[in-house]
Design brief:
Number of helices: 5
Helix content: 25-40%
Strand order of the largest sheet: 1-2
Shape: globular
Structural class: alpha+beta
Order of helices and strands: EEHEHEHHH
Number of domains: 1
Largest sheet: 2 strands, antiparallel
Length: 138
């Protein structure tokens, strides 16, 4: 089968995500980096007195991170080359409180309209390594 991340024809280890063993290991490694990326991002948001876009409440170090373009894959070819996956790419983070995050997840179309979510259809497949996806978003 074809791996959804590296696009090689290899055995798939993670059938849920369609990943080969080496890409699945990279995902696990990225998951170890997320708490650090999350903390640094929220620390910056607190320092800048950021507000939750949902209800204008102050962002705290305990706020949620909404991944505006999802958590799996890369935003574009440049981010793939930099090995900066969406899971830890702060460009696509949105600091929100828990009720705001729940609202965003339940009201997809409205959160897209507000710019809080970037639809996957804009990515032409997040795993496409040859297209600069962000150019389509401008």
């Amino acid at each position: 089968m074809i791996c959804n991340r590296c696009e090689r024809d290899v055995a798939i280890e993670n059938k849920d995500l369609g990943l080969c063993a080496s890409c699945n290991k990279e995902i696990r490694d990225d998951e170890k980096l997320f708490p650090v990326a999350r903390f640094k991002f929220l620390e910056l948001m607190v320092k800048n007195e950021a507000k939750c876009p949902y209800d204008d409440s102050p962002i705290t170090i305990h706020s949620d991170i909404h991944h505006k373009m999802g958590r799996v894959g890369f935003a574009d070819a440049e981010k793939r080359e930099m090995d900066l996956p969406l899971l830890i790419d702060p460009e696509y983070f949105l600091a929100v409180n828990r009720p705001g995050h729940q609202w965003i997840e339940k009201h997809r179309e409205e959160s897209i309209a507000r710019g809080w979510t970037i639809p996957r259809s804009h990515t032409h497949g997040i795993h496409d390594r040859d297209k600069n996806v962000r150019a389509d978003l401008v």
